Amino acid sequence: MEKLSGISETLLITLYFRYLESKRANAIIYDAKSIEIIRKMGLKPCASSAAFYCF
After folding, report:
1. If you write DSSP's letter for every residue of the chain in order, what string do you get?
2. Which end of the chain is more exposed for a tag (fewer CB within 10 A), N or C?
């Protein structure tokens, strides 16, 4: 996957947090499309505090 920056990275962060919220049991919003996109991209939560997601 290519390195993202600027607007692309900002959009990915927003999408990822919509995904995380949708996965919670008591989610306020549910966004099936964000789940689909994040799964297709192969992103997963990172244990590192330096990054929100890992490839």
Report:
1. -PPP-HHHHHHHHHHHHHHHHHHSTT-S---HHHHHHHHHHT-EE-SSTT-SEE-
2. N
Query: How confident is the model over 1-55, as pLDDT tens digits?
Result: 567 667 777 788 889 889 989 988 999 999 999 999 988 988 776 665 555 556 5
In our burial notation (b when 16+ CB lie closer than 10 A, e otherwise), range 17-48 reads: ebbbebeeeeeeeebeebeebbeeeebeeeee
Question: Two tokens at 39?
Answer: 């799964």
* pLDDT > 70: percent of the chain: 73
For residue 27, what pLDDT is reported?
93
pTM, full prediction: 0.69
